[in-house]
Amino acid sequence: MPLAAIDWSLWLSPWVLGLLGLCIGSFLNVVVHRLPLMLERQWLHESAAQLTDAAAMARVAGVPAAEADKLARAVDAYGTKIEALPPLGLATPRSRCPHCGHVLRWHENLPLAGWLRLGGRCAACKAPISRRYPLVELATGLAFAALSWRFGAQPATLLWCGFVAALIALALIDWDTTLLPDAINQPLLWAGLLAALLGWTIPLDQALTGALAGYLSLWSVYWLFKLATGKEGMGYGDFKLLAALGAWLGWQMILPIVLGASAIGAVAGLVMKMNAGLREGRYVPFGPFLAGGGLVALFAGPQAVLGWLGW
């Protein structure tokens, strides 16, 4: 069926996209929980491969051959245990209760409805199920519905749905683990540039300038702070996230996003400090606030955001 013959007003209506958002939100809960664990497994495998190289240990770290061999044998034993772990991916194993291991049945795994039907408790052991799961599903559903109102029932709206879904996943992963995975960051950046190239979002020159401005601005702040204090004030994932935001929203939104994220992040940090909620190292991840700034810029629109700043 030709695209022109499809009734987008039905398939991309707020109600349909809202239901799609509930399902995507359920998937995002899986991504947020499992992707960091998958990455940690990968990093452990890579580290083990380096540590079992006795020649490299002797050459780089000056470890005597006997000690390097002993270390290699010990690491190899742990590597074998890691390889024996059950498969872990976004699709396997099936979702289960973290308390008793009960495998969720299909109706227990329905977005939002499953949690409500269970009363927020495991069907087997009655342990509480985190409220964050239904809240993420609901927030994603509402965001997708709002995108339909914001951009209309057109195919390009689906691109913005993907953009929002990626920001939600990145914000939650960074808040939980202080990681902004390249597995999401980099595709988000390239998708923004490709969408601009194909004329689906913003002009290509704005997307390219936005990506460069986003990356280089935080990269410069990082190095100035490090040279001045000898400490790292943020991670490289923040540079890549802001570059992706620039590719989707344009260079004009970079400064408003950074200013808004910095102000809200500072307030959140002060509140957490007063409540003794700061994690080890006494810092607040910046990624969730960058993502939040990007969402505000998206839904408010560039004219409104620039108007708030008097530009």
Describe this structure in words.
- The chain is mainly alpha-helical and 311 residues long.
- It is 69% helix and 0% strand.
- It contains 13 helices and no strands.
- It has helices at 8-11, 14-51, 54-61, 65-83, 113-117, 132-151, 156-177, 182-197, 204-229, 236-249, 254-274, 287-300, 302-308.
- α8 packs antiparallel against α9 (204-229).
- The chain is globular and about 70 Å long.
- The protein starts with 7 loop residues before the first helix and ends with a helix.
Summarize the structure.
By secondary structure, the protein is mostly helical. It has 13 helices and no strands.
Global geometry: globular
- Strand share of the residues? under 5%
Annotation field: number of helices: 13
Report low-confidence residues grouped into runs of 5 or more. Answer: none
The SS-based structural class is mainly alpha
Radius of gyration: 23 Å
* Chain-averaged pLDDT: 89
Helix content: 55-70%
**Span from first to last CA?**
46 Å
Order of helices and strands: HHHHHHHHHHHHH
Q: Based on DSSP secondary structure assignment, what is the total number of beta strands?
A: 0
Main sheet summary: none
